[in-house]
């Protein structure tokens, strides 16, 4: 079966999460990823926790399956020349060093585009390649904080919270991959490559802003509201006898269905609750009615009754319950992959369910430098003697 990005070559100068996630998406869709690693030990994220009993990183598994590993020391002049030759052969270059690092090494966008005018050169960083924060050191939590996510996450009287996954990193990777795919289409039309500048802060702010856009009308700083939704009620997680129930209502019809499930049709014409805006004004009363009902019911009883009336709701499963959820299993969101050292390992499946070119997450990670001979000999024409010399010099 052909893949959507078959024939596309990506030169991957990435490490840890945002950059490897971007190139992992491209790999999953069929691109050939040439992952550039340090000679000898490879990239540091190969040792990122948590690890298998055999010493392989689950994080590295997640973002590097199916890639080809080549080793290269770009601080060595010969290594830089090899990198330039690779640029000439590739369609895309992705990097997530601190801004300016690759340029100082001699492979900034200007150099790369002079070698290959069609190159799509994508950079992912905490704050982008321009602006007053350009050079600040950034990790995911900084991106979440500075993008505004932590200002609206958590409870009003509690500490600010990040979300439970590295969302700023993920969005940096996803936004870069979206921009790359758009740039590929543009190049198909015009033959021109371009530079892509992705900021983790931008990505978080772009998600936070739409729900808080009225700030510029009211000039009232948005508050943290926990699991509630400031613009609709009932919407959030609510306590039942033995746990929590998630209930989400937006429309007036959904509210009427909640009343039917609660056996409170007597409130269907109550003027306090007739519209979404009015229900928000009377949020305390709405939630009081719901909480009184939930106090007498288990999670299963409440969810069963609410679903009878098509109220969007669920229990709040533990991680192990999600990992065994029949829907997750049906969608093949857990796959078994044979890894080089650790053997069979269960990992996440592909979100890209496509009728002709589905995503492929069943490939293994490469060993450090596993594809040196394949890439340097077949793609760049180096002889066996050349490779031995480059290896002895510490270039590869």
Q: What is the strand and helix layout of this fold?
A:
Blueprint: E1 9-13, H1 18-28, E2 32-37, H2 58-64, E3 68-71, H3 77-89, E4 92-95, H4 101-104, H5 109-115, E5 120-125, H6 140-146, H7 167-190, E6 194-199, H8 200-208, H9 215-218, E7 235-239, E8 244-248, H10 252-262, H11 276-281, H12 283-294, H13 299-308, E9 313-315, H14 319-323, H15 326-330, E10 334-339, E11 343-348, H16 372-379, H17 384-392
Parallel strand pairs: 1-2, 1-4, 2-3, 4-5, 5-6
Antiparallel strand pairs: 7-8, 8-9, 10-11
Helix pairs in contact: 1-7, 6-8, 7-8, 10-13
**Shape type:** elongated
The overall average pLDDT, rounded, is: 95
In the sheet with the most strands, the strands line up as 3-2-1-4-5-6
| Rg, Å, rounded | 26 Å
CATH class of the largest domain: Alpha Beta
Q: What is the succession of H and E elements? A: EHEHEHEHHEHHEHHEEHHHHEHHEEHH
Short structural description:
Helices cover 38% and strands 14% of the residues. The chain has 396 residues and is of the alpha/beta class.
């Amino acid at each position: 079966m052909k893949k959507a990005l078959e024939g596309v070559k990506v030169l991957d100068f990435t490490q840890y999460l945002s950059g490897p996630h971007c190139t992992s998406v491209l790999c999953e869709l069929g691109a050939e990823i040439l992952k550039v690693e340090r000679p000898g030990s490879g990239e540091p994220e190969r040792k990122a926790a948590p690890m298998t009993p055999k010493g392989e990183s689950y994080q590295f598994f997640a973002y590097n399956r199916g890639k080809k590993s080549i080793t290269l020391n770009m601080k060595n002049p010969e290594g830089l020349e090899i990198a330039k030759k690779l640029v000439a052969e590739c369609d895309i270059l992705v990097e997530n060093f601190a801004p300016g690092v690759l340029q100082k090494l001699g492979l900034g966008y200007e150099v790369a585009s002079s070698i290959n005018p069609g190159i799509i050169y994508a950079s992912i960083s905490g704050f982008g390649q321009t602006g007053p924060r350009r050079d600040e050191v950034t990790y995911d939590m900084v991106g979440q904080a500075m993008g505004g996510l932590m200002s609206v996450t958590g409870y009003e009287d509690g500490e600010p919270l990040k979300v439970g996954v590295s969302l700023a990193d993920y969005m940096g990777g996803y936004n870069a991959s979206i921009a790359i795919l758009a740039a590929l289409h543009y190049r198909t039309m015009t033959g021109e490559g371009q530079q892509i500048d992705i900021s983790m802060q931008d990505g978080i702010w772009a998600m936070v802003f739409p729900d808080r856009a009225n700030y510029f009308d009211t000039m009232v700083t948005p508050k943290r509201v926990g699991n509630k939704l400031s613009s609709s009620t009932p919407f959030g997680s609510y306590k039942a006898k033995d746990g929590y129930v998630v209930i989400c209502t937006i429309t007036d019809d959904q509210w009427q269905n909640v009343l039917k499930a609660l056996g409170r049709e007597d409130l269907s014409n109550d003027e306090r609750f007739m519209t979404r805006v009015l229900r928000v004004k009377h949020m305390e009363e709405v939630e009081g009615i719901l909480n009184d009902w939930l106090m007498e019911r288990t999670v299963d009883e409440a969810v069963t009754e609410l679903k009878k009336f098509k109220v969007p709701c669920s229990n709040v499963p533990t991680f192990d319950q999600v990992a065994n959820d029949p829907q997750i299993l049906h969608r093949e969101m857990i796959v078994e992959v044979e890894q080089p050292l650790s053997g069979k390992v269960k990992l996440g499946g592909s979100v890209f369910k496509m009728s002709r070119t589905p995503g492929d997450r069943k490939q293994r990670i490469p060993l450090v430098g596993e594809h040196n001979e394949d890439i340097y000999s077949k793609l760049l024409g180096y002889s066996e003697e050349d490779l031995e010399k480059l290896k002895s010099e510490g270039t590869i």
